[in-house]
Design goal:
The chain has 208 residues and is of the alpha/beta class. The protein is 29% helix and 25% strand. The chain has helices at 49-61, 79-91, 106-114, 135-143, 165-173, 197-204; strands at residues 9-15, 19-26, 31-36, 64-68, 98-104, 121-127, 149-155, 177-182. An eight-stranded mixed β-sheet has the order 1-2-4-3-5-6-7-8, with helices on both faces. It starts with 8 loop residues before the first strand and ends with a helix. The mean pLDDT is 93.
Length: 208
């Protein structure tokens, strides 16, 4: 898309001295999509994949989008992001807002573990979060989620695909949790020119 919109601005939050998280912002309505990159990932994503996602959602649905980087050794909670969102909403006079969340790899783990702490987060799409990393913490976090839905998505070529059936056990304990498998996709969803907007359209708007 040659006329793709760029972010309207970039906000920042600081964690532990010099570690800075960038938030690319596209202005929209009171529904806010928070995108969280994988460990070490930028707010734009490799070859602008998060920018393309933000542009699609902003144009198609009018949502505000904040796309967050994920510095190594940075803030592995959602407190910094939610503080940025609250300040942004206050600055625009949004008395009420709702947040939808898409996290990728380590960003998916952060959502699973911390999303329940923020009632503003209504739906989550958690893509290829590593399941071999402290599963008990991930399980404890996601079972507390009381929003509308939390959808785990795994590519069949992702290293965690072999453990994805663990999510099936959680579906039985929390009906908000769902597992979806994307056949033929790897950790980065890089096969066959896949566009991350397809995941957003398929799972952020699905009523299970």
């Amino acid at each position: 898309m040659t006329n793709r919109k760029d972010f309207d601005r970039t906000l920042q939050s600081r964690f532990s001295g010099e570690i800075v998280t960038d938030y690319g912002v596209m202005d929209g309505n009171s529904t806010i999509l928070l995108v969280k990159a994988g460990n070490g990932g930028s707010h734009r994503g490799y070859e602008d994949k998060y920018l393309r996602l933000a542009d699609h959602i902003n144009r198609a649905h009018g949502w505000t989008v904040l796309s967050a980087s994920n510095p190594q050794n940075g803030d592995k909670t959602l407190e910094g992001a939610m503080q940025i969102i609250r300040e942004y909403a206050a600055g625009r006079g949004l008395e009420k807002f709702q947040v939808y969340y898409m996290g990728f790899s380590d960003g998916a783990l952060i959502g699973a573990r911390c999303g329940a702490d923020y009632p503003e987060i209504r739906r989550m799409v958690l893509v290829n979060g590593p399941l071999m990393m402290n599963w008990h913490r991930t399980k404890a976090g996601i079972l507390r989620f009381l929003g509308e839905s939390a959808t785990f998505v795994y590519g069949s070529l992702d290293p965690s695909y072999r453990y994805a059936e663990l999510i099936r056990t959680l579906e039985k304990e929390n009906p908000r949790i769902h597992l979806e498998i994307a056949d033929g996709q790897d950790h980065y969803f890089s096969k066959n020119g896949f566009d991350l907007a397809e995941l957003a359209e398929r799972y952020l708007f699905t009523t299970f």
